[in-house]
Amino acid sequence: MTKDDKLTEEKIFDAATEIFEEKGLAATRMQDIADRAGINKALLHYYFRSKDKLFNAVFDKLAEKIFAKFASIFEEDMPFEDKIRFFFTEHIKFLQKNPKLPMFIIGEVNRSPELLSKFLDRININRIKEKISGDLGDDISPDVIPHLMVSIISLSVFPVAAKPIISGILDSAGIDYDSFMEERIKVAPEFVINAIKQQQVESQNKRK
Amino acid sequence: MTKDDKLTEEKIFDAATEIFEEKGLAATRMQDIADRAGINKALLHYYFRSKDKLFNAVFDKLAEKIFAKFASIFEEDMPFEDKIRFFFTEHIKFLQKNPKLPMFIIGEVNRSPELLSKFLDRININRIKEKISGDLGDDISPDVIPHLMVSIISLSVFPVAAKPIISGILDSAGIDYDSFMEERIKVAPEFVINAIKQQQVESQNKRK
DNA sequence: GTCTATAGAAGGATAGAC
DNA sequence: GTCTATCCTTCTATAGAC
């Protein structure tokens, strides 16, 4: 494979990534990808054979991207409250740079759930669960740890995934979406930390 | 319009609703709608002229449906903590009955943001903001009320919108999705209530 | 109002020249 | 490796018989 091959293949792959991420598989046209890549439609098939194969290559790459950060963050060696703050900072900043990514992944997995297998093995939920459980001590029941995890993800992903709607509603109240998300980097972790603290307080009161 | 007209038009509309909600505009085929309605493809055009017009009729109906409950819940006359509990109970139960609805709305609005105008006027965020502000008193800054609202919506909608992914991840940890969501009706409101309580405690400590 | 048949457009994929 | 031209399937939409 010569250097030029590589360049063309990359141009196609990058263009496909942008358009698939934006529109999803069903609404994407091979012609649009060719146009954005600045090459001919036939070349798409020369390099990737079919629309499906090109899509799968793109999906793999993007699934890799979105789950790369996840697991590692809670492995860090720092106080739990700082982990929460660190997570929201890193995660929201990442999502701001890749605002279309969550909806793309959720939408396509929704359409064909077999795509799940492509990244499920990347996530060891029990490992994370134990980590958090160890951090939080006996005042938090292990049964609510999965809820805590889902809550944290919901709080950081949803406002980005539903950006057009949230943005529209905020706008109607005179609030700028971007400023709102900047605030959120601070507000969201404190929300979570407060909920956990209060839970611990109540749990200790009961024991007395 | 005779009685039979009405029946056929409804059959088409209902079939279209199911399929659009499931697959979205781009992936939906008129033939699939005709098949599910048990009638001929030509009839779709007889009653709704074009795919786009049929889609818009369906979208209007579904947008109406998902936002109907929203505003009213916080108008209820009860203690704030009960409002939170009431909201999650009602909202999660509603979403369990309509699991495809959030992704449909978010996905289609994402694709063409002009759809937003169809329901934005239904939501008076400042009205809700004032209600909540009144309920919470001075210990919660008015600036964080929008964050609180977005957090509440995130916590209830996201786990349903991302059902295939959440379900898959939970499954790999031996947790059943439906049981998880039943728990969530109780866990999520307590999470929010705890966060607010702790916030109020800290705010009062500062003042002393 | 409902059907069959078909027009007409769009999109994925391939053949073949260079 | 890249292009033009074209095939073939799929899909929306309409014409016209009943």
Characterize the structure shown:
The structure is a homodimer of 208-residue chains. Chain A is mostly helical. The first copy, chain A, folds into two domains: 1-49, Homeodomain-like (Arc Repressor Mutant, subunit A), CATH 1.10.10.60; 66-207, Tetracycline Repressor, domain 2 (Orthogonal Bundle). Chain A contains eleven helices and no strands. Chain A has helices spanning 3-27, 30-37, 41-48, 51-73, 80-97, 101-111, 117-120, 125-136, 145-161, 163-172, 177-207. In chain A, α1 crosses α6 (101-111). Chain A is elongated and about 75 Å long. Chains A and B meet through α1, α6, α8, α9 and α10 of A and α1, α6, α8, α9 and α10 of B.
The domain count of chain A comes to 2
* Protein structure class of chain A: mainly alpha
Q: Report the oligomer.
A: homodimer
Which architecture of the largest domain in chain A per CATH? Orthogonal Bundle
Strand tally of chain A: 0
Helix content class of chain A: over 70%
Largest pleated sheet of chain A: none
Uncertain spans of chain A, ≥5 residues at pLDDT below 50? none
